[in-house]
Every structure is written in C-alpha cells, then in structure tokens.
Amino acid sequence: MQNSDKTLLKHHRKLLGVLCALLAPLCLLFGLFGWNTNNPEWYYSISATYYTNSQMLMIGLLVSTSVYFFSYRGYDFLDRLLTTLSAISALGIVAFPCKCAGCPDFVGLFSIPSGVSHIIHSVFAAVLFTSFALMILIQFTKGKDNPTPQKLKRDRVYRICGWTIVAFELSQAVTALVGIRWFTVINEAVMLLAFSVAWLVKGEAFKALNDVEA
Q: What is the model's pTM?
C-alpha cells in the first residue's frame, strides 16, 4: 500500500471514529430544540430520535457509517464480512425504526406495523454492535509475532473497547427485559464511544500509541 493510500485510510478511520462519537450527543443536543413537540420518550434511546427534530442527524450519521463500511477494503474475508454486516445493519436500523411512545402505527421504509419494525430494528442493532465488538477484539488485535511495545498498548485499548461493547450490549438486553427503557441511551452512548476510541486508535489519532517510524 502506497503512503498516499495509507494516509487516506488513516483519515477515513479517524473520520469514522468522530462520526460515531458524535451520533449520541448531537442527536440528543439538537433534540432539545424540539423539547415541546417531540414525543415523551424521545431521549430514551438514539433510535427514538428518529421521531424528533434531530431525525436528520440520526439518519445521516448512520447512513454515512454504512457507506463507509460498504466501501471499506478489508484485509481478509472476516474483515470484509464484519464490515458488510455493520453496513447492512446500520441501514436496517434506519429502514426499520424502533417503537416508542407517540410513534405512528405504521413506520419505516416499508410502512409496517411499529411493533414488527421494532423487533427487526432490535435484531439489526444487536448485529451491529456484535460486529463492532468482534471487529475490534479479533481484527484490530491481529499482528506480527513480535509486536512492538506500542502495538501491545494499542491491543490493550482495543480489548478494553471491545469488551466494553460486549458488557453494555448485555446491559441493554437486561435493562430492556426488565423494562428500564430510558437506560438504552446510556448503553448505546457507551458502546458508540468505545467503538469510536478503537477506530481513532486504529487511525493513529493518538501519537502516544503509534509506532515510531524508522
């Protein structure tokens, strides 16, 4: 890979990290402008902002993420599989909105009952975050037999980020099961932040973790 290609790849990785980091705060921040008109549970999850004035941000950032993953050149079959699953899942989340208080009876790209859409939406969300975790834990930690000290540091960060996603995905399953719906936004925000940090590290955004070039 030529230096110009490597530089562009690093830039794209950092851009993806920034986009994912901004998804939760931007959707919630701009949702405050519609506080009086948004449905009562609009801030319970990032997905619920689909029905708010910040819908454009929620859809735009997810679609941008999907486009990135569709165009990402993976290093092997598993890399391409995980990024393709992420791309499809991100689009699925947008095409099949969740169900929340005040949403229409028929929703989404195919105008299906909100309850059915919610189930499909939840499956796509689970696949998305699972693919994120596997991507970080398996793909990002790959390397040569004699890793540099900086590579070992990066791998520790990747494992922390990957297992954080796993832990909060389990948290989401439990809190959804017991009906603590408002906690969804916390689970989502933490998982997205962990994913973002991993991709920023992968994009060499933190000099302290980068290998020193000879």
A: 0.93
**Phi/psi at 144 (5° precision):** -75, 170
Q: CB–CB of 13/202 below 8 Å? A: yes
Helix (H) and strand (E) counts for the chain? 6, 2
Please report, for residues 6, 12, 54, 153, 160, the alpha-carbon distance to residue 205 in angstroms, rounded to integers and kept in the order given. Answer: 13, 11, 29, 14, 17
Contact 135, 83 (CB under 8 A): yes
Q: Which of 145, 197, 188, 153 is nearest to 169 (CA)?
A: 188
Task: Count CB atoms within 10 A of the CB of residue 204.
Answer: 18
Q: Which of 79, 54, 45 is nearest to 168 (CA)?
A: 45
For 17-60, what is each residue's pLDDT tens digit? 999 999 999 999 999 999 899 999 999 999 999 999 999 999 99
Residues ≥6 apart with Cβ < 8 Å to 113: 105, 106
Nearest by Cα to 131 from 69, 181, 71: 69
| Residue 179 backbone phi and psi in degrees, to 5 | 85, 20
Whether 34 contacts 58, CB under 8 Å? no
Q: What share of the chain is helix, strand, coil (3-state, %, to 5)?
A: 70, 0, 25
pLDDT single digits (tens) 97-106 = 999 998 999 9
CA separation for the pair 105, 115 (Å, rounded): 8
- State the DSSP code for 135: I
